[in-house]
Amino acid sequence: MVLPNGSVLSFRSTKYISNDINDVSVLTGANINEVLLDSHRFKCHMNAPSTCSVNRPYIQPVQITSEIHLLNRVFNGSEVSTTLICQYPIQITDIQMPSFLGPNEQAVVNINFTNISARSYGECSDSAGSVEFILSTNSLIKVVLMNEKSLYQITSDGRGLYRINDKILPKSRRHIRFKIALDNKVKNQVYENLFWNIDLLLRDTLIERRTNNIRVIPLFMPNIRADLLLVTNSQFSRAEFLAYQNLFRLFNYSSQIWDIERYGVLYNSELKWLNTADLIIFIYSNPQSTFNTIKSQLFLQHMNSSENAGFICIGNCESNELDFALFDYNKLKFINTKQKKKSEVNNHLWSSIGFRRPNVEELIEKANKIRINFEKQEDHKFLYQVVYNNAINTETTHFMKVIYGNKYLYKSTLDSQVGNRLIMITSANSLLVASHLPFPLVTPPLNSNRQSDIDPLCKKTLHNKSELSRIIQSEIDLTSNFDRLLCALLFYQGFEKSHAIISEKHELANCVFKIGLNKFSFDEVLASLAMSIIEREYDRGTLEFPLSKQLVQQIANVIQKGKDTTYEHGRYNNKWFYLLIQSLSEYIDSKFVIFFHWHNYTEKVKQRRQLMKILHDLHSLSTYKILTNKQINQEVRKLRLQKLANLKFPAADKRENCVRSINEIQAWIEEQKFNEIESSTEQLLYPYVVQKF
Q: What is the rounded CA–CA span in Å between residue 614 and residue 610?
């Protein structure tokens, strides 16, 4: 088709570009297959975006389309499109900002930017436009001057204003710096996220914004002694912190915090946490914090540091994961030379085929027999573990006898008594606020512009001052993380201190504990705690029941102080004592053994005799004879606090299997070395964690 003379060439305006309607070119005619070159230069204006780009430079593909009109109609086939990449010439490349700070801490903010264009910017004669950076923060983050010659200003509303007052060369990279400090008032806002914004302005127009938060993490003070040390991680929130504070107030515990995000795992070379607290509560959040990176020497030092030393772990962990802290795998050796030689003599498997490699199940079964025999020698006071090598020793192997690698036997330095202060709360989610809380969780606002956040699961109207003074506002659900941790603390502090909750008329004394359709008073919980101690020793196989006897002595102390096991007007003044005797009586009956003369010296018979002696000692503490009431057997059979709250005691519970392969240990040792080197390198290179954008 022939292009008629007088056709009009133009570019249409779109959302991203604007074109002057008078900016057109009148074309001369052209024949078919003739190339027509138009010398007119069109000028299009790129429209400013309606919103600025957030956390990335503005990059927008823009399509422009030419068209030819004839008699106010588009000439058929004249529309030709092309795509251009539209972006601003000045762009932020990355920002180095601390991801956390503590009260009164200061930090330097580094902002790197680039000029991608062929023109100069800033303050110069050929400048294409001015460039400014504005740092805005939460009111608790103060922008402070770097020094007397700081190149930025602080505005009346506290923002940092950095105007580039020199030349930004084409295709160049630059950086600027601000200094910030956290207000001391953030002590009341720990684990809160405080916002910050960095705005990039070109020719007084906002073209890019970077925004994020600084997390308020408290400082660990090694010179301060507290009741407990809470080990937190990056998933720990402000709401979680408030839930823990309520729990600590409930037990009147003072606390310090060690945050893994800030200080790393528990062997920081610069800070010493050992002997700063009796109890450690470790929030396990794999893979951000694992037991594989806790030095066993430090852990064992802590657990043996005092009679009140304890360790409670909550999270998605298993009991045997703590083995890497209970045993010193860095020293592979048998318990003693004599036993090693004796073991090597029997360290084989018989086979009718000969030269058969033992399978894993056989090795584990044999190893468990070895360690159980050692545990029996000390009445199961200590926990033992066997590490085996399943490589066949070909030099000593012959027909009908297969010799495989050495075994190594480990004895934990924690005895069963210390093991009762080592507790694990296994849960797929380690957060307390992820499940039921027995109180409304109110998060105080950061400032007047924010409203309080109230946990929707715990909304409740408080009607009087007495309700405001109480912490527990509803029933305690033994399936929730908070309430299971509460029970773990009862176990940790022991029977005598837990009983003081009743004598001191603590608010827990009137609380209701529930699991499913079953509800328990604190008296029943106290009896359940005592029964769990007795049952744990029985299951482990001890013959002397040292902890149960210690429990009887504690009960005697309680009775001596309170004189409250008397019988008046048809009821017992102390319900927990009555329930404990009934529960223990039912438990002994359930362990009934048919007595033939050859059974008199079996372990179970000896255990049952000890249980009966413990029951007799309890009866002797009462001023009135307590008769067995079998009508409540079904109710008292449930009184096992460890089972009700689903708690584990890795160093005190009975172990069916306590064996590991030497390959697993060697891999762990290598991982320990790697983690220690990596941790040391990070501390040298990065004094604080930075965020890059």
A: 6
Mean pLDDT across the chain: 82
Strand bridging mode 160-163 / 121-122: unpaired
Q: Characterize the bridge pairing of strands 100-101 and 567-568.
A: unpaired
Structure tokens at 290: 């694992």
The answer to whether the bond into 4 is cis (omega within 30° of 0) is no
- Tokens coding 640: 């096992």
Tell me if residue 183 falls in helix, strand or coil.
coil
* Beta carbons within 8 Å of 177's beta carbon, 6+ residues apart: 108, 109, 110, 111, 146
**How many Å apart are CA 292 and CA 329, to the nearest integer?**
11
* pLDDT band, very low/low/confident/very high, at 623 (cuts 50, 70, 90): confident
CA angle 481-487-490, nearest 5°?
145
> Of 184, 159, 160, which is closest to residue 105 (Cα–Cα)?
184
E strand or H helix at 550: helix 546-562
Express each pLDDT in 281-305 by its tens digit.
998 876 544 455 567 778 888 888 8
Helix 522-540 with 575-590: angle, nearest 10 deg: 30
Q: What is the pLDDT of residue 690?
A: 42
**Distances, alpha carbon 167 to alpha carbons 112, 654, 673, in Å:** 16, 75, 50
Q: Are strands 476-477 and 513-515 parallel, antiparallel or unpaired?
A: parallel
Compute the distance between CA of residue 419 and CA of residue 383 in angstroms, rounded to an integer.
9
Cα 312 vs. chain centroid, distance in angstroms?
A: 13
Check residue 49 and give its pLDDT: 79
Instruction: Take residue 97 and report the two structure tokens written for it.
Output: 């900002």
Count other Cβ atoms within 10 Å, centred on residue 538: 20
What are the pLDDT digits (tens) for 120-166?
999 999 999 999 999 999 999 999 998 877 889 999 999 999 999 99
In the chain the domains, ranked by start, together with CATH numbers, are 8-87 (no CATH), 90-216 (2.60.40.10), 474-479+492-644 (no CATH)
Q: Which two tokens stand for residue 440?
A: 């409304």
* 649 neighbors 536 (Cβ within 8 angstroms): yes
Beta bridge partners of 25: 9
> Per-residue DSSP letters for 211-238?
EEEEEE-PPP-TT--EEEEEEE-TT--H
| Cα(483)–Cα(522) distance, integer angstroms | 13
Tokens read off for 219: 């400082």
pLDDT at 685 over 60: no
Element (H, E) at 112: strand 106-115
pTM of this structure: 0.81
DSSP E strand stretches across 121-192 = 121-122, 131-137, 141-144, 153-154, 160-163, 167-168, 172-182
Q: Which residues contact 582 (CB under 8 A, 6 or more apart)?
A: 628, 629, 632, 633, 636
314, 425 Cβ separation under 8 angstroms: yes
Give the Å distances, CA to CA, from 180 to 25, 134, 618.
57, 13, 65
First to last CA, the chain: 55
Secondary structure tally for the chain: helices H, strands E: 16, 38
- The three-point CA angle 483-277-486 to 5° equals 5
CB neighbour list of residue 626: distance below 8 Å, 6 or more residues apart: 572, 578, 581, 619
